[in-house]
Amino acid sequence: MIDIYYINLDKSIERKEHIESQLKDVECNVHRFPATNGHMLDISQFDKYNSTKSKKYRKRELNKGQLGCFSSHYNLWQKCIEINKPILIIEDDIIIHTPVMNNFIESYKKGDLENYECIRLFNNRRRSVTYKQEKKLFGYYLVRYNKGLMGTQGYYITPRGASKLITESKEWFLPVDIYMDSFWINKVIPYGTLPACVSTQDEFESDIGYEQKNKRSLSHSLKREFYSLIQNFRRISFNIFNR
Prior knowledge:
Layout: E1 3-8, H1 13-23, E2 29-34, H2 51-58, H3 64-83, E3 87-91, E4 94-96, H4 98-110, E5 118-120, E6 131-137, E7 140-145, E8 154-157, H5 159-167, H6 176-181, H7 183-186, E9 191-194, E10 198-200, H8 218-241
Parallel strand pairs: 1-2, 1-3, 5-9
Antiparallel strand pairs: 3-8, 4-10, 5-8, 6-7, 7-9
Helix pairs in contact: 3-5
């Protein structure tokens, strides 16, 4: 049976109850994974954080919540490597679509997912995302996206995929979802399920919190656009040469 880890802050009792009530109907071993509360730490305690690069490429720093989120997922990648088997990672504010999730887990049991290092389980809310069908499995399709889905609400990860994510994250300067979406850097191709196994829950406010978008100077905006242009070129090139 596959292990599923849900990320949960110690203070977030309501979220804990919300996710555990849903997991009762999912065929898995359930583990609560204590989230890193970035707001309780000093920025200097995140030794992998590179504020210079963050300001250079994003024109703003990661806030404590974003660093805590990165740390939580990073620690679970390490856990995946440590136990040396695939795991499911979910956040505690999602809605689980139980039939699809159990179909996905059944595919895992049958060995249908052995060639895939990371599979997004959540619904796409991003515009201009396209996909191609990889294979039809019982109750859902496995697809490959042309770009990431900008989220970490839930995903399947193997030790090989986790190792790749860790190898290329020696320095943190992007939010963890943007880093995971940068598959031309980490070489972890963005697969997903249709329909989704989980979806976002709008009832809960973010436990992370995002910084206010400060007004940027023209030069900063141009530098950011240039960086985005380069990354888009790298993404398109990767997709062309890694079909």
